Amino acid sequence: MTDEKKEVSSDGEEFKDLLDRNVVKVPQVGELIRGKVITASKAEVKLDIDGVMTGVVRGPELYEEDDEYATLKPGSEVDATVIDDENENGELELSFRIAGQERAWAGIQDAYENKKIIRVRIVDANKGGLLAKYRQIAGFLPVSQLAPENYPRVSGGDKSKILDKLRSFAGQEFEVKVITLEEKDDKIIFSEKEAWNEKQQDVISKYKVGTAIEGKITAITDFGVFVSFGENLEGLIHISELAWQRIDDPGDLYKVGDTIKAEVISLENSKIFLSAKKLLKDPWENVGEKYKLGQTVPGIILKVNPFGLFVKLDDEIHGLAHVSQLSLSPGQRIYDKYKAKETINFEIVSMEPKEHRLGLAHSDRLDAKTEKKEEKEEAGSEEKKTDSEEKDEEKKEEKTKKAPKKEKTAKTEKKTPKEKKPGVKKADKTKIE
């Protein structure tokens, strides 16, 4: 091979390499590419692709769910998905929506695998919970997975009121964790409670069982009251821990906004359980000074149950009269004979101060005994009244007898000066003569 041929061959290879290096690769449909914003408006966004072609994003393909796409400006670099390699203007037709969804799925998968906290937007609600979206991907946030501050505590469990409460969250953003991710079934479950737990761990660790707190009541339910305290913490005082005596409705004692003192009695992960009665003196410690076995005491029936009566002996001590300790005729229903708010006499048949139990019994003989006692007291009262009346009459008679003597003395005292007057006149007459 001559030197000229060698030179031509060398130049050809260099030219080929130059062409290979500068070949423009046309993006394919479905490919994710990156471009630089030329212009951006609400109607369309134009991108410069590698300085050799232009792409356009318009109409429904615009996407603002991702922060990257919401505030685009000329010069910004952004990802887009090719949906057509050439439109009517010879431009690449692009989509932010598809690219955004791909990025969103990647974000959700990362959050699920690494247990990261993400933000979701609430779009609607149903009886079971909240419909939420992470960018453009929909998921569900069950009621049971709401943080304590957002849990719908409705007295009586009224479902319509619970739904109204849930719907009030529409438009808000919650911090959540992904606890279920099944892409094939399009099933995504979020948990606000899990995210809240993680954020509160450091704060909760400052509290131990036995720690006394003071807070404000944020909600009242049939089963107790919720108390807000410390650094955005919330605890539950169960109805059985509100007071030493039995309580039917916490609303009878407290209202939302009331300040209350309590003691931490249990810490279960992020759940804090409190007790108000722990800070109160236990009235059962001295119950033996108030009541004795076999003693007959009046009691107010608080509640009638198939198994017996809850009875109030005083503001602090309540007892139970079991159905077996009641005076019921064969076939007679407990509700037919006993009524709530009724006051009758009971006999104390058992006392267990450590267990805070006091057993009562009622029989018709107690009622008969009471009636006789009342009759006797009434008779004694009448006798006392008669004796009192007789004494009053005797006093009146004594006053009557003494009264004339006093009048006579008074008359005698009046007559004394009259008797002296004639003597004076006589002396005067003698002097004249």
UniProtKB/TrEMBL annotation:
Residues 30-97, 115-193, 210-277, 294-363 form the S1 motif domain. SMART domains: S1 (SM00316). Transmembrane segments: none annotated. One of its GO terms (molecular function) is nucleic acid binding. Residues 359-433 are annotated as: Disordered. It comes from the Bacteria. This is S1 motif domain-containing protein. It comes from Candidatus Falkowbacteria bacterium RIFOXYA2_FULL_47_19. Pfam families: S1. Binds mRNA; thus facilitating recognition of the initiation point. It is needed to translate mRNA with a short Shine-Dalgarno (SD) purine-rich sequence.
